[in-house]
């Protein structure tokens, strides 16, 4: 009986996977996209290299493209959009910038700038339209200190202004530990008050408040570790899934995904992991999750235990509409949309 039930469930899962396809709605743009924000089923924003920002207000059918004036060489690795007119973009390094538009991308205002040597922003996360956070690679806590700590700044006015938290409160990083700016999703809201973020490199850990939690994910070199984290659940019961791998070996499934249901006290590995290095994971609904990377897209309908390879299209980031059901992907010079058949 168990074999029959398993076979039935497997067949249903395969049919579900087969009923999905990715429609490439933008291709061959001369930019590499890693920033993606899906406001609703119609409004989608992307950001990337060479100062490029794109916006669609018709569900990806047509796009308006911008090269942010004065930032033609900036790589905007993350974007957070609030509607069809308002968005915040993050430029990664030396100087590190955050800019905001309130007129649909026609004009941008610098709302944060850091010229310090070695400064490198990795990702933003917003709890709502007012409260947000940005993290960056480790910086020296003080000129006289040998310790390096994860940079953190906060906004409480929708990204119009940003304030660094006190450097003594930065989470101290280990040697060779940093955050990957691969998809803007290595930090996510854990509750209404706090985030969870993950690191990679020589050491890969999960950070929740003052807790630094080792994870059984591949690590030990500059190209390995956690790239993305997603959260499902209520205050009392949460499922957290972390994905990554080694971006130099895009087809490897070795320790590329871990799951915790007790805030990092214990971790499990999937029975069938995502089918390669994955730079992004998102929670969809019920027990459904999605992950993407250099060699394709995986879907799980059982809280991450079994992953199905539903597409071999390469993308860096995926996002579900904040208000709606649309799911988009971005990576390289392309944007894709998940189509249910």
Description:
With 341 residues, the protein is mainly beta. It has a single domain (2-340), classed as Methylamine Dehydrogenase, Chain H, CATH 2.130.10. 5% of the residues lie in helices and 45% in strands. The protein is built from 1 helix and 29 strands. The chain has one helix at 2-18; strands at 20-26, 33-38, 44-48, 52-56, 64-67, 76-81, 87-91, 96-101, 109-114, 121-126, 132-140, 148-155, 163-164, 177-178, 187-189, 195-198, 200-201, 205-208, 211-214, 224-233, 238-246, 257-260, 280-285, 288-293, 296-300, 308-311, 317-320, 327-331, 334-340. The strands form 8 sheets. The protein has a 4-stranded antiparallel beta sheet with strand order 1-29-28-27. Strands 2-3-4-5 form a 4-stranded antiparallel beta sheet, with no helix packed on it. Strands 6-7-8-9 form a 4-stranded antiparallel beta sheet, with no helix packed on it. A hairpin with a 3-residue loop joins strand 3 (44-48) and strand 4. It is globular. The relative contact order is 0.14. The model is unreliable at 1-18 (pLDDT under 50).
């Amino acid at each position: 009986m168990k074999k029959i039930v398993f076979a039935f469930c497997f067949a249903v899962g395969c049919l579900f996977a087969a009923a999905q396809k990715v429609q490439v709605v933008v291709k061959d743009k001369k930019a590499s996209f890693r920033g993606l924000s899906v406001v609703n089923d119609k409004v989608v924003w992307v950001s990337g290299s060479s100062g490029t920002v794109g916006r669609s207000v018709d569900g990806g059918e047509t796009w308006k493209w911008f090269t942010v004036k004065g930032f033609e060489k900036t790589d905007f690795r993350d974007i957070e959009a609030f509607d069809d007119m308002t968005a915040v973009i993050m430029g990664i390094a030396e100087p590190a910038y955050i800019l905001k538009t309130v007129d649909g991308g026609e004009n941008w205002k610098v709302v944060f700038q850091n010229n310090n040597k070695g400064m490198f922003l990795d990702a933003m996360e917003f709890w709502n339209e007012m409260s947000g956070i940005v993290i960056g690679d480790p910086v020296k806590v003080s000129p006289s200190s040998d310790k390096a700590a994860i940079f953190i700044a906060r906004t409480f006015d929708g990204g119009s202004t940003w304030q660094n938290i006190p450097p003594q409160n930065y989470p101290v990083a280990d040697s060779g530990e940093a955050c990957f700016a691969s998809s803007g999703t290595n930090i996510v809201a854990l509750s209404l008050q706090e985030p969870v973020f993950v690191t990679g490199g020589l050491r890969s850990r999960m950070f929740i408040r003052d807790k630094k939690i080792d994870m059984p994910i591949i690590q030990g070199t500059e190209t390995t570790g956690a790239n993305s984290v997603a959260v499902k659940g209520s205050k009392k019961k949460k499922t957290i899934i972390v994905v990554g791998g080694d971006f130099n070996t895009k087809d490897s499934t070795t320790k590329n995904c871990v799951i915790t249901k007790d805030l990092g006290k214990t971790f499990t590995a999937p029975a069938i992991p995502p089918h390669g290095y994955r730079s992004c994971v998102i929670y969809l609904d019920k027990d459904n999750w999605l992950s993407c990377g250099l060699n394709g897209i995986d879907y799980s309908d059982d809280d991450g235990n079994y992953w199905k390879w539903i597409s071999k299209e390469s993308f860096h980031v995926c996002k579900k509409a904040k208000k709606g059901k649309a799911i988009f992907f971005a990576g390289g010079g392309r944007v894709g949309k998940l189509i249910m058949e």
